[in-house]
Design goal:
CATH architecture of the largest domain: 3-Layer(aba) Sandwich
Helix content: 40-55%
Number of helices: 14
Number of domains: 2
Distance between the termini: 21 Å
Order of helices and strands: HHHEHEHEEEHEEEHEHHHEHHEHH
CATH topology of the largest domain: Rossmann fold
Largest sheet: 5 strands, parallel
Shape: globular
Strand order of the largest sheet: 2-5-8-1-9
């Protein structure tokens, strides 16, 4: 275990450089930066929810540039077609032959901006890419670059002209991060920084993609003890069987609990959280730190919960306070 810890300290040192470079561009938003690093290490997609102007897109672009990976941004609109995302088969009359023009999904980092503005066909076009890391195009199956992360944004307030994401697609996001407004001091610094000609500073490349892939292999060696595994199961099953967890009053408020994919994501994200803290083992603190981001988009509440003004965040807070910590 000591050897794994030493390797984490050595091979994970680049994450500090990556965090520092992101902080040189993004003012505040420490939770957002932490979540992006967590998803990068755990190989999971992220859904960013927040009002416009909170640096969601800038944070994703900064991460991609600091890593030196390919980055594409797609502005999702109601008239977007699946081919605009995946690519298409193009005929060249001068050569009398067909070729494949790959779409923006063939990149290391895909920013799906305002993903809920695109219709179901476009949203479902992402499903295979997100889950299988491959795309069926022109009769062929094409592998996507490695690493491949989808980072999607959505506005929680403006719902006119939007399409709610299907549960199957929401479940494929490892994390849902709620981005909040900066503090007064942070916003003053943003104002000073953006007053410069040319806007915010351009991030520098500080690492290689190979270091990310190596860190992911090392992540497999982070210990998830039996006690930690049981705690993860206790949290997930508390959303499905609240009576058994001593939360009978919560049963009428939850329509659907967290899926098995939530269990897997919580285990992987907890290991990534421990890795970011420089540890070779998962603690309950790691699990509790990532649980809200892993489960908030996987709980479906009832009309009764809505009528009583009980949010998913309220339910998760109660579960984390009630389920015994090993």
């Amino acid at each position: 275990m000591d050897q794994v810890g030493e390797r984490i300290a050595a091979e994970g040192a680049f994450l500090k450089d990556l965090r520092r470079e992101m902080q040189s561009v993004i003012v505040g938003q420490e939770s957002l930066i932490e979540s992006l690093l967590l998803a990068l290490l755990a190989d999971g997609h992220v859904l960013l929810e927040g009002l416009p102007g909170l640096a969601k897109s800038l944070a994703v672009e900064t991460l991609a540039r600091a890593l030196g990976g390919s980055f594409r941004r797609v502005q999702f609109t109601p008239d977007l077609l699946p081919s605009d995302l995946l690519g298409t088969h193009v005929y060249h009359p001068d050569r009398g032959e067909w070729s494949v023009r790959e779409g923006p999904v063939f990149s290391n980092f895909l920013l799906a901006d305002e993903i809920n503005r695109a219709p179901a066909k476009v949203q479902s076009a992402l499903l295979e890419a997100m889950q299988e890391r491959q795309v069926s195009l022109a009769g062929d199956t094409r592998k996507l670059p490695h690493p491949f992360l989808v980072l999607a944004t959505q506005n929680p307030v403006e719902l006119e002209g939007t399409y709610a994401l299907p549960e199957a697609q929401i479940d494929r996001f490892m994390l849902k991060v709620v981005v909040k407004h900066p503090s007064r001091e942070e916003e003053a610094l943003i104002m000073k920084r953006m007053a410069r000609n040319g806007g915010p500073p351009r991030p520098k490349k500080v690492t290689e993609l190979d270091q990310i892939l190596a860190a992911r292999k090392l992540l497999d060696e982070v210990l998830l003890s039996e006690a930690a595994s049981q705690y993860i199961l206790d949290l997930v099953f508390a959303t499905r069987e609240p009576e058994a967890a001593g939360l009978a009053s919560m049963a009428p408020l939850i329509l659907y609990g967290a899926s098995p994919r939530a269990t897997l994501s919580l285990a992987q994200a907890s290991k990534a959280q421990a890795f970011l803290q420089g540890r070779a083992f998962v603690t309950p603190v790691d699990i509790k730190a990532v649980a809200p981001s892993v489960m908030r988009h996987r709980l479906v509440t009832t009309y009764e919960a809505e009528a009583e003004g009980v949010s998913v965040e309220d339910l998760l807070t109660t579960i984390l306070q009630t389920v015994p910590v090993p």
